[in-house]
Write a structure and sequence with these properties.
This protein is mostly helical and 313 residues long. 73% of the residues lie in helices and 0% in strands. Helix 2 runs antiparallel to helix 3 (27-38) and helix 5 packs antiparallel against helix 6 (102-120).
Length: 313
């Protein structure tokens, strides 16, 4: 996991910078802002990890040399952007459960996000054209994901839920004078973001089914069952996953993404290695389900014994 271990010191630095920024916002919002930031701290246990958001600038920096202080700025800006879009997504997903202060807090954080990038790029910079592009991609994806089956007909729109992550691509390439490399990197990052969303959707499918949120795994099951007028039930999903091996085919979709990423493996190896880590995660989940299913088919007693052996290790 060189894509992570080599940058742990940098992660500590940029999260400290983010804490300092949020400690300076109006007092009424300071404590909830810092508490929200803490939920994503990558160096603490039991936190939500969003590695690509704050590590992508460092992965690119390995091959595209930029002054370290600028890389720190870009990564810190991405932390602010991550907090902002998470707050907005929560508001869109569960508006009745959100406090009145959440949107004002989001706007305060967004202001800090813009300040950092404005210090790096004047208003005339092409960076802001890329900014408009990625925000537009995000807006379309989150607005129409339940009206169009993106996973089946236009998978890149799955990635566009996190399109603002690509701001670090535009920033790094523009600062290094390599704008012509942006399209290739946009494509690569989109592929990684699709796989990331697939893993999240495996973990969240029951919650998403209840809330009516779009979900890649649910899309696959719905397509397999030829359900045109309704979503699959809990029982149908469990049947597909635990009996019919749906997750094996699901993980192979990520393998296809990895094959497509092979052209970036030499140019940006850490991005490629991170995606390999994601594919391995998804494949291990699928293979464990298959092992459990095989044991159950051979007999319940054998399965119970295997479970006890696993627990005793």
């Amino acid at each position: 996991m060189m894509w992570l271990t080599r940058f742990e010191e940098d992660l500590g630095l940029i999260f400290s910078q983010a804490e300092s920024i949020l400690a300076a916002i109006p007092e009424e919002f300071r404590s909830p802002a810092l508490s929200y930031l803490d939920k994503f701290h990558p160096l603490k246990e039991h936190r939500s990890k969003n590695y690509i958001c704050y590590l992508l600038p460092y992965w690119l920096n390995e091959e595209v040399p930029i002054a370290p202080d600028r890389v720190h700025q870009i990564s810190t800006a991405n932390i602010m952007g991550m907090l902002y879009y998470h707050l907005i997504d929560e508001t869109m997903d569960n508006p009745s459960l959100i406090s009145r202060s959440q949107l004002p807090l989001a706007q305060l954080i967004h202001s800090e996000f813009i300040k950092i990038y404005s210090a790096l790029f004047p208003s005339s910079s092409p960076f802001w054209t890329y900014y408009d592009k990625y925000i537009g991609e995000w807006a379309v994806a989150v607005t129409y994901e339940n009206e169009q089956d993106f996973f089946q007909v236009n998978p890149v729109c799955i990635a566009h839920r996190a399109a603002p992550v690509k701001l670090s691509v535009a920033a790094m390439m523009l600062l290094s004078g390599q704008e012509t490399r942006i399209p290739q990197l946009e494509e690569a990052v989109d592929l990684v973001l699709i796989t990331l969303q697939m893993i999240d959707d495996w973990q969240d499918w029951e919650k998403d089914l209840i809330e009516g949120s779009y979900n890649c795994l649910l899309s696959m099951v719905q397509s397999d069952l030829h359900l045109s007028d309704r979503r699959p039930t809990v029982e149908e999903i469990k049947q597909a996953v635990y009996v019919e091996g749906c997750l094996i085919r699901y993980s192979k979709r990520a393998d296809v993404h990895h094959d497509a990423l092979s052209h970036t493996s030499s140019s940006f190896p850490l991005l490629y290695e991170f995606h390999a880590y994601l594919c391995d995660q998804l494949e291990e989940i699928a293979q464990q389900i298959e092992r459990d299913r095989s044991l159950l088919q051979r007999g319940g007693l054998e399965y119970l014994l295997s479970q006890q052996l696993t627990k005793s290790k």
